Amino acid sequence: MEQRENIIELKHITKTFEDGxxxxxxxxxxxxxxxxxxxxxxSGCGKTTTLRMIAGFDIxxxxxxxxxxxxxxxxxxxxxxxxxxxxxxALFPHMNIFxxxxxxxxxxxxxxxxxxxxxxxxxxxxxxEGFEKRKVSTLSGGQQQRVAIAxxxxxxxxxxxxDEPLGALDLKMRKEMQLELKAxxxxxxxxxxxxxxxxxxxxxxxDKIVVMxxxxxxxxxxxxxxxNEPKNAFVADFIGDSNIFNGIMTGQLxxxxxxxxxxxxxxxxxxxxxxxxxxxxxxxxxxPQEGTIKGVVTSVIxxxxxxxxxxxxxxxxxxxxxxxSAKPGDPVGIRVEPDNIHIMIAxxxxxxxxxxxxxxxxxxxxxxxxxxxxxxIIKGSKRTESGTLVDAAGEEIDPAKVKVMAAxxxxxxxMTDHQDEGLIQGYISNLIYKGDHYSYVIHTELGQxxxxxxxxxxxxxxxxxxxxxxxxxxxxxxx
Length: 479
Fold this sequence. Notes:
By secondary structure, the protein is of the alpha+beta class. It is built from nine helices and 33 strands. The strands form seven sheets. A six-stranded mixed β-sheet has the order 6-7-8-3-9-10, sandwiched between helices. Strands 13-12-11-14-20 form a five-stranded antiparallel β-sheet. The radius of gyration is 28 Å and the shape is globular. The mean pLDDT is 89.
């Protein structure tokens, strides 16, 4: 297979805004010449900011961007062989189609006959021959999109950046344009870097997908890798539909989750806590006695190509896609082939955060005094009559030189909609269903994220308070 060289490299890129918000954090990526690379993730994950840094509209706070092996981190946009197509096409309404496409070439003082040849060529490429004199206002959304792409491509950039370019189109037009863009990429042979939050769009078009969340890379791989071998629960949940369960390895190639022991193909050490991912289309419904686990059908929704069937088994819930229907209340068995179970080693979601020490040597967090003190967590330490703190050897401890970290598990935090009851407040920035509970990410007022497990469904962006009992915390001290 032909080895292609890197055209763009991003090395340890971080973008921090004036308010201290990290839009992108330690981002690393290599893009091969001629690749179709897609940045995929929810709104606010840093996709567009990264694209703007490649284009030169934003400068990284840290890190380096290389083009063909040479640094371009501080090079202005007009000096980069890169063009951008935005969701809002930014066409000039007072110009006809020819004038819109030719605008960049005229700025470069290219001769009239060459401009005419180049514009004619790209109009054929985007299937708009004969539209030269048409006004922008007479075109459909899909046609305007083609003009915007033609205007970018006519400059013959080495790299074409596309920022949610199909977002303004209806579903049918979007699907048509996905295929047209893929064909256009193949014909042009230039590098495409594409931004979207649409998983199907990314899977359909890309050679390589970069899954992002909260400014960080979650996984980089081919569409097949991302779908079949997600690296963590966020990727599994974000890419397509997934059943995600906490579990444990019970033996060689055996895992227990969702109330049953399943054969699998991932050789993970016995006793390891794991996360199991099963795609709905890979679940087999059987007679109750033939299943690895038993359950009851709770809902059936017809989706055209298949039925979406939800089965409850104990406290767990599993979603199945099947061409055969079922009825709510039906007892069923559930079976999954070993190679359709993806096992990931469970992530440690212990929440760790720094606490302050006040003048009375008591611990504080978010201006709230915690019911504990340094003397309780530094073994053998005590306060003298003069009020100083000494260790077991009688040596004075300087609280200013002591750093205390608190840790609390996601099961030990409770969310409340009475925000003033919480030790800290924030909003729900992400949630993943884990079969018998939801795993939430709470972005707090101090800028730290906390992971909280709760059996009840809250909504994205809900404002909540976090109740964190001191007796559930563990403390570590650095001196």
